Amino acid sequence: MKLGLINSAWAQAGKGTEFGIVQTRRIGFDTIDIQADPLDLDVRERRLIRDAARREKLPIKSVCCVALGLADFNYSVQRFSVDRVKQYLDFCYELESENLLLVLGEYIWQQEVIPPHDQWNTAVVNVQECARYARTLGLDIVIELEPFKLSLVNSVETMLAMLDDVGMPNVKANCDISHLHLVHAPPSQVAQLAGRIGHVHLSDCNGKTHGDLPPGRGNTPIAQYLKAIRDTGFDKTVSIELEYAPQPEKIVEWVQEAYTETDKIMRELGCRR
Known about the structure:
Structural class: alpha/beta
CATH superfamily: Divalent-metal-dependent TIM barrel enzymes
Order of helices and strands: EHHEHEHEHEHEHEHEH
Strand content: 15-25%
Oligomer: single chain
CATH architecture: Alpha-Beta Barrel
Helix content: 40-55%
Number of domains: 1
Strand order of the largest sheet: 1-2-3-4-5-6-7-8
Distance between the termini: 6 Å
CATH topology: TIM Barrel
Radius of gyration: 18 Å
Number of strands: 8
Number of helices: 9
Largest sheet: 8 strands, parallel, barrel
């Protein structure tokens, strides 16, 4: 496996794009993921991301997209959201990444008023349309499991159901280790995703609330989850996800700590190459 970092760690600490890419390579990461909305970027920033990553020999593996509107009940919102995802896919292609990380929405109104299966089916149809476009670009879409009560995909079971209902080989699972811990999915359950994992996120948490901490600062059994992921045959990229460092002025140390601890776990498991 390769070890990557999502660049949001730097952005949320107020550091610029180029600074983050340079530091990511200096610390020792193999790859980088980009969290940036192409609708908010001008042509100079888009080129800066691509050129800085190439110069640092840091392949971009994934672009992160939160697209809650894919499950919205308003057709106009759905159309905008599908078009926006397609622009993200163009951005992926431009950056030569492998996949688009897709975060789906949540059930509204406590699953009342609108039947939950209708909202689910809306998401399925719109993901299928996005996946067909992704296929023309040679890209995968990886769906993230979100650890929140009303998220459409919030368990291994609902992840498998979404993948089955979408029914397209270029739509896969993002296996987020701390999210699995938060929804109390044991590492043994990862085996059910064998052959269907396209990307992995790694971070720690306290087991109760979303955290995205460096490994060792929470109680997530990271090594057990990572071993289970390895045992499915997955051998692509594990990307560290760090959010909202408590001391933004020490973000370099925060990222270095996450790298060191994750690299140690991966080498002990013999899964970093």
